[in-house]
Specification:
Distance between the termini of chain A: 43 Å
Helix content of chain A: 25-40%
Strand content of chain B: 15-25%
Number of helices of chain B: 12
CATH class of chain A: Alpha Beta
Number of domains of chain B: 2
Distance between the termini of chain B: 51 Å
Number of strands of chain B: 15
Number of helices of chain A: 10
Largest interface: A-B, 34 and 40 residues
Largest sheet of chain A: 7 strands, mixed
CATH topology of chain A: Rossmann fold
Structural class of chain A: alpha/beta
Shape of chain A: globular
CATH topology of the largest domain in chain B: Rossmann fold
Helix content of chain B: 25-40%
Oligomer: heterotrimer
Radius of gyration of chain A: 17 Å
CATH architecture of the largest domain in chain B: 3-Layer(aba) Sandwich
Strand content of chain A: 15-25%
Structural class of chain B: alpha/beta
Number of strands of chain A: 7
Chains: A alpha/beta, B alpha/beta, C alpha/beta
CATH superfamily of the largest domain in chain B: Thiamin diphosphate (ThDP)-binding fold, Pyr/PP domains
Largest sheet of chain B: 7 strands, mixed
Strand order of the largest sheet of chain B: 3-2-4-5-7-6-13
Radius of gyration of chain B: 21 Å
Number of domains of chain A: 1
CATH architecture of chain A: 3-Layer(aba) Sandwich
CATH superfamily of chain A: Thiamin diphosphate (ThDP)-binding fold, Pyr/PP domains
């Protein structure tokens, strides 16, 4: 039986990443790195970094970066794309950055249909600061700022980007995960498609990726992946929701 | 012959920026600065630049951060509470050494305040405003022409130091019309600066424009940054002195108040009262060198449109507290020449003492 | 020599434009000039006013706290500003809309003209402001009629409204020809 070995990392990945063991960000960064390399657009890409665990892509990816204040990627990307329209302008955002502190900027970029791309890593918590309540924290889910679990009465309902954006005039909206090789493959296709929409001037694209945070979920990496598969995926509309 | 326009101060500021190479503007409507936004909405399209009406001041200041990071000369503007909202973004400009330019057309009041003129953004504007150790290089125009000229040169000044520039105007200067000589267009290539982000091929070092926190060895950066600020203090102090050498009482005022103060100096001298005026053109660095021109001075008096004498505190600080220092504070009203002269007479007569600092 | 002027009226009566025309005419005579508007909430409807300063020297304040001349095109503006006029100053009122009995100042020179009615008779109601400026030019020595006419036409030409110049000159002359 031929043994499958891991592919060599694409040239954009300049060193090992700094994420926790089992963190979803590292997998996503590798996916994005492969797509940028395969599309041969590294030199034409400027990534707008959020602040949060996600920003650590900067240390392992050889790509130009602009890092505005936490959550302000919708504003920054708008400006970046307009002053250099031939560049691919995208962000790797956290769910807190994109949907809480930066929701206004995210929505404004989407409603204007700016020709930019959001990749939002949804791990249902604020990872870098220790796993506090995020808009995406599930009802019943423990977080470090909701020790009895999230309840509608005490903390309000959770945020679902698909419910919010599915009727907008935007180019592309998808939700994927990375819990298995086939899911990773779907994510990679969505990433590529979102960037192709931007290349073709179609408008705003957003891919939300459900990723594990074993550290803050208090789970092993394997359990965290199972948690996404068993608890999150059934609650969410998955796949391509808008594809114009 | 140079072209003269009769335009509002706000429009002059916007046109000065355009002529100075500004090709990105983002802002949000707020009285009394909206003419800057409106002028940019028209003019950026004409010169091939980008105009974005941001969804908020917060978005706008961060748009300017990003556009400037990509090399384009960029401006935002606001007033009062809108300027407050931009403080976080400006702190990031400083930390990331983004030479953005911001104009604050001061209006009076705390919180929402009022739409009329004021000079009570001084503390916020000069003492940081956001978190961390910084001052912005701050220019204080006192005419429509200076609104144009300061905006015109602000980008080069900011680029020279890789440090943001603030144009601290006010509602009176912004709303009034005066004749204004238009400056010639400057050529500026957004690719000319080596730090500008424009995409890097594999094999060359990629560029990261970011808050210093994530990038630099902090001790080396701190030393570099402090030295930069010391050099700015040494080289960029600007002021105008009017009858300072023999002044018994020296007024200090910036912006609209400095025009009234100048009028008071002229009128007082006709009456034989030796008033002088130091008008800071840069508020930071504070033009403390100007104090060396004083020879017979008995007292300093600031003239400013706020309640607490915000500017007076810096005058005390930078003059080494060597003179009794008073403040004529007029809150939302523009000072009057006769009131300034009457105040000076009271000091000469020994009728008033300086108030405690708030 | 410094002349401070306030032009006041309803929003839409063209008082801001009247001030700009004075500014421009003075600028053409190499005077130092400033123009400062009421703005903000007052801009639409309600009352509007602007301050114009014309001086041989650098102008300190653009505010006419105690104007040498006050032009009022409506009643509320008279009430608001008449007490600010310098003793010995000049008060120009639009008697079409301002009740002369409302004038309480006795230490100012009063000039009365029904400029709105005149403008209506010229089928150019919006030019009441210009009729008043004609009258002002007649009663003061700020500008000769030719100086003002020329600068006014140039101003409107520059702002893309030159096609109304004939009508505007007619309005100006109607004011200038009043006694």
């Amino acid at each position: 039986m031929a043994r499958k070995t891991a592919k060599k990392a694409p040239v954009i990945m300049k060193c090992e990443n700094m994420f926790c063991a089992g963190c979803g960000h590292s997998i996503f960064d590798r996916i994005l790195g492969e797509v940028l390399t395969e599309m041969n657009i590294i030199q034409d890409t400027i990534i707008c970094s959020d602040i949060g665990c996600n920003h650590q892509f900067q240390y392992s990816m050889a790509v130009d970066v602009v890092m505005p204040p936490h959550g302000k990627m919708g504003a920054a990307l708008t400006a970046m794309k307009r002053v250099r329209p031939n560049k691919y302008c995208l962000t790797i955002a956290g769910d807190g950055g994109a949907y809480a502190i930066g929701l206004g900027e995210t929505m404004s970029a989407a409603t204007r249909d700016e020709n930019v791309t959001f990749f939002v890593m949804n791990n249902t918590c604020y990872g870098m600061t220790g796993g506090q309540l995020a808009p995406t924290t599930q009802i019943g889910q423990w977080s470090s700022s909701t020790p009895r679990g999230r309840s509608i009465e005490e903390h309000g309902r959770d945020f679902d980007v698909v419910k919010v954006m599915k009727n907008l005039d935007i180019a592309y909206l998808a939700r994927t995960t990375i819990t298995s090789p086939s899911e990773i493959d779907k994510t990679k296709k969505a990433v590529r498609k979102a960037l192709e929409k931007q290349r073709d001037g179609k408008g705003f694209s957003l891919v939300e990726v459900l990723v594990p945070c074993p550290t803050n979920w208090g789970m092993s990496p394997v359990k965290a992946m199972e948690h996404i598969k068993n608890e999150l995926v059934p609650r969410y509309e998955m796949g391509e929701i808008i594809d114009k | 012959m140079a072209e003269i326009l009769l335009i509002k101060g706000n429009e002059a500021l916007a046109e000065g920026a355009i002529r100075g190479g500004c090709r990105f503007y983002a802002g949000y409507p707020i009285t009394p600065q909206s003419e800057i936004l409106e002028w940019m909405g028209k003019r950026q399209a004409e010169v091939g630049g980008v105009f974005v009406q941001g969804e908020s001041e917060i978005a706008s200041v961060n748009m300017v951060y990003a556009a400037r990071a990509l090399g384009v000369r960029s401006l935002t503007s606001s007033s009062g509470p809108g300027f407050t909202l931009k403080q976080e973004g400006i702190a990031y400009w400083v930390s990331a050494e983004i030479p953005g330019v911001i104009a604050c057309v001061q209006r009076y009041g705390i919180g929402d305040g009022f739409i009329g003129a004021g000079q009570d953004n001084y503390w916020q504007a000069i003492k940081g405003g956001g978190n961390g150790d910084y001052h912005l290089i701050t220019l204080a125009p006192n005419s429509v022409q200076e609104n144009m000229d300061m905006a015109y040169e602000s980008f080069e000044l900011a680029e020279k130091w890789r440090h943001p520039v603030l144009i601290l105007s006010d509602a009176t200067i912004g709303q009034m019309i005066e004749p204004c000589e238009v400056r010639p267009y400057k050529e500026y290539d957004k690719d000319q600066l080596d730090w500008a982000v424009k995409g890097t091929p594999i094999g060359q070092p990629n560029k990261i424009v970011s808050d210093v926190t994530y990038i630099e060895p902090i001790d080396e950066w701190n030393e570099y940054y402090l030295n930069k600020c010391r050099k700015i203090i040494e080289t960029e102090q600007r002021w105008e002195s009017i009858h300072v050498n023999d002044a018994e009482i020296c007024l200090l005022a910036y912006g609209i108040s400095s025009r009234i103060a100048e009028g008071a100096v002229r009128k007082a001298r006709e009456e034989g009262i030796k008033l002088g005026l130091i008008r800071p053109i840069t508020l930071w660095p504070f033009p403390k060198k100007a104090f060396s021109e004083l020879k017979n001075c008995k007292a300093l008096v600031t003239v400013e449109m706020n309640m607490m004498g915000q500017f007076r505190e810096d005058v005390i600080l930078y003059s080494g507290n060597k003179y009794p220092t008073y403040a004529i504070t007029t809150a939302y009203k523009v000072p009057k020449i006769d009131d300034i002269i009457a105040f000076a007479k009271k000091i000469i007569a020994g009728e008033i003492e300086p108030e405690e600092v708030f | 020599m410094i002349t401070e002027i306030i032009c006041a009226g309803f929003g839409g009566q063209g008082v801001l434009t009247a001030g700009k025309l004075l500014l421009y005419a003075a600028y053409k005579k190499d005077k130092h000039v400033t123009w400062f508007p009421s703005y903000g909430n007052e801009m639409r409807g309600g009352s509007a006013n602007c301050n114009v300063i014309i001086s041989d020297d650098r102008i300190a304040s653009p505010y006419a706290d105690n104007p040498d001349m006050l032009i009022v095109l409506n009643g509320p503006s008279l009430e608001k500003f008449q007490n600010t006029v310098k003793p010995g100053g000049r008060l120009f009122i639009n008697t079409s809309l301002v009740d002369e009995a409302m004038v309480t100042r006795t230490d100012v020179e009063l000039f009365k003209a029904p400029v709105t009615d005149i403008a209506i008779s010229l089928k150019n109601e919006r030019a009441a402001n210009i009729v008043m400026l004609g009258y002002l030019c007649k009663k003061t020595n700020l500008f000769t009629d030719k100086e003002f006419e020329n600068s006014m036409c140039e101003y409107f030409e520059d702002s893309g409204k030159g096609k109304y110049n004939e009508k505007n000159v007619e309005a100006f002359r109607s004011g200038y020809n009043l006694d």
